[in-house]
Amino acid sequence: MKKSDMKLGYIALAIAAVLPLQAADTIRLNSKPGTLKVRIEGTSNIHDWQVEGKLIGGYMEVGQNFPLEPGKAAEPGKVDAKVEAFIPVRSLRSVEKDGSPYSTKMDDIMYENMRVADFDRVWFRLQEMTLKEAAKAKDAPHVFEAKGEVVVGGVTNAITMPVNITPLGDNQLRVVGSVGLKMTDFKITPPAPSIAAGLIKTGDPVTVKFEWLVVQKKAAATAK
Prior knowledge:
mainly beta; elongated; 8-stranded antiparallel β-barrel; 224 residues; 42% strand; Lipocalin; single chain; 2 helices
């Protein structure tokens, strides 16, 4: 066997030995249905408006240095984390301030402007997460800074936002955040609905708020 072939063989063995360790050191947490909320708030020349949804899909993977359990010591700095989350566009509905339905016509206008026919999901992909402030109590949240990309209607923009993450025990995390965006950054023209003869002018800035619960999927019990 040539020395070069032997060297490549050693490298392959080393990679094969390391990869299982990396996988074992990573914990995957999935969205927990029934506990999720997203809210988009905006303005117009007539009144403020709001949109809500209760579907957030995706997952979060965390490494050994992530404060996953309540009371776990944590030092400020970058943490090992990966996030891919999405919101189905048609799960969003315009609502009154009290949460009751507002207008299906407004919903249709929103879907059209978000180009739902071609892009039926809003995506967020994490690029970097930094712990800024550790929890001050066992039931308090850790304060993070999250950097990533948001994709709306096929248009991608980089964002940075503060995120509060509270470990709930049993490998569950509550993730709460808020970020300001502009419609025009995603090539969306702020709507001026024709059903109001164009008299309603929607403001460009919006605020997106979310509450996301993720939990580690437990292994299925084996039959005896």
